[in-house]
Each structure stands twice: as structure tokens, then as C-alpha cells.
Specification:
Elements: E1 20-24, E2 29-31, H1 35-43, E3 52-57, E4 64-70, E5 76-82, E6 87-93, H2 96-108
Antiparallel strand pairs: 1-2, 1-3, 3-4, 4-5, 5-6
Helix pairs in contact: 1-2
Length: about 110
């Protein structure tokens, strides 16, 4: 059964990070997004008025975040940053399904 991303942990897929959300520039917000929800948010990005999605814990000074931003011609910049683990990765990707899958795995490794 496909998930919408609106389910809480345990119902929408295994994600270790607690209480995090995804926000897009156009104001869309999804709590604890599933892989399918991330796919939808990234698919809705464009180079006019909805250029990025930002994912982070719901806390004042988060230790980690991820973002996806539109570049051009179907390319996306993906940033993953985790200060606790001293990780900072920036890549350019084209396959939205792969971006959503990779982010879901990365999020599963985050704990708050």
C-alpha cells in the first residue's frame, strides 16, 4: 500500500529520526515524511516559485538537516549535513525516485 507521508512513524515506514518535518518554498509541510511524500515534494519543485525542500528536526537548534534545490534542466542539488557525525555532503542528482530513496535511508540513520 503506498504511503502519503502523513502517517506517523510505524505506520508510514521505518524512520528513526523523531519529530522532523519537510517544508517546501511554496509552504507545503509534511510531518515525518515517507519516501513517497518526499518524492511528491521534490516532484513539485520548479525554477519559478518552489525551488527547494528543507528537512530537519522540529527543534530550535537542529544537529542535522537535508535539502533539495532545483538547479536547471532536471538537476537537483542535494545537501545532507549532520554536525554530530561531522557529515556534510553535497551532490547533484537527476532521478527524483533515487533522491527520495537515498534521503529516506539517510533520515533513518538520524536520531534526536
Amino acid at each position: 500500500m503506498p504511503t502519503t507521508g502523513f502517517e506517523r512513524r510505524g505506520q508510514g515506514g521505518p524512520v528513526a529520526a523523531e519529530d522532523y518535518g519537510a517544508d517546501s518554498e511554496n509552504g507545503d509541510h509534511i510531518d515525518d515524511p515517507s519516501e513517497d511524500a518526499l518524492f511528491m515534494l521534490i516532484s513539485d519543485l520548479n525554477d519559478a516559485d518552489n525551488t527547494f525542500v528543507f528537512i530537519q528536526p522540529d527543534e530550535d537548534e537542529p544537529d542535522w538537516f537535508a535539502s533539495v534545490a532545483v538547479l536547471d534542466e532536471g538537476r537537483y542539488e542535494v545537501v545532507r549535513r549532520d554536525t554530530d557525525r561531522r557529515e556534510h555532503d553535497v551532490s547533484v542528482e537527476t532521478a527524483i525516485r533515487r533522491i527520495a530513496g537515498d534521503l529516506t535511508k539517510w533520515l533513518a540513520a538520524r536520531t534526536t
